Amino acid sequence: MAGYRVGPDYIEAHRAFVAVGADEHGGRVLGFYSLVLVPPELDLLFVADEAQGRGIGRLLVAHMQSEARAAGIDRVKVVSHLPAEDFYHRVGAVRTGTALANPPAVPWDRPEFEFRIPSE
């Protein structure tokens, strides 16, 4: 997502959370997601390339589920980038359909998922 920018207007409008590295990562942003409450959607979940495979995405998803549960949400939609499809399966999301391409903004079809958020 080189060149993609999340600005103050986006952060003010959505619940945004960041995973920041410690130790060898020196406070760098390693991951990010936002939770849109209405309608419930996991938006812009990213983990830095060099940080993938270390459980950061899994931690961000668990955090999102906790935030959704606290907000009284029982389902959260995700429109995924195609290469992330396996990740969403591994963290418990259920495939629900396909978001069709919307050129020129998004020229490819994308898998849609849903997280079911159980109450505790």
TrEMBL record:
The UniProt entry, under InterPro entries, shows: Acetyltransferase_Butenolide (IPR053144), Acyl_CoA_acyltransferase (IPR016181), GNAT_dom (IPR000182)
What range(s) does the N-acetyltransferase domain occupy?
1-120
| Domain of life where this protein originates | Bacteria
Q: Which residues form a coiled coil?
A: none
Q: What is this protein called?
A: GNAT superfamily N-acetyltransferase
Query: Organism source for this protein?
Result: Streptomyces griseochromogenes
